[in-house]
Design a protein that fits this description.
single chain, 162 residues, mainly alpha, 5 helices
Amino acid sequence: MSEFVHAFLGKPDLNQIEICLDAESREILLELVNQFRSTLLGDADQSLERLYPPAYPEDPKLNAEYDDLVHDDLLREKLESIDVLESTIWLEFVELEAFFAWMSIINSVRLVLGTRLNVSEEDEFDFEQIDDPEQTLFVWLAMLLDEAVTASTFYLENFNKT
């Protein structure tokens, strides 16, 4: 019986997260992040819509005003999180703040890919039947995000104690 290998492990005693990804997984993640940065900077790709949901879907004028107020800040936050992930990708352990940047970017890339694949919350994947590389990538990102949330739960436990 083989042991399940985690992508991330919480280290509460160190207040850090251990990054257990192999070199190939880190390279794939770096390539995805690089593509994501290009997409963000292009700012015209329709698949970014889930990253910038409308605040006022029924009022285009108010929504445009809101977008003018927050879009640049949201973009800057994403680009800063990309920088953090890129600068820590080869580390064995990362601080929680850096790991939250990882989580943000993994989720953002997953959302963009899910938009491109037209994935909805009702979609379920039969892991034996996935033959599309983009679907495989989407499921991998979802699994990484799930592992990331699980690894960081000690933070919430510590937070709730204070």
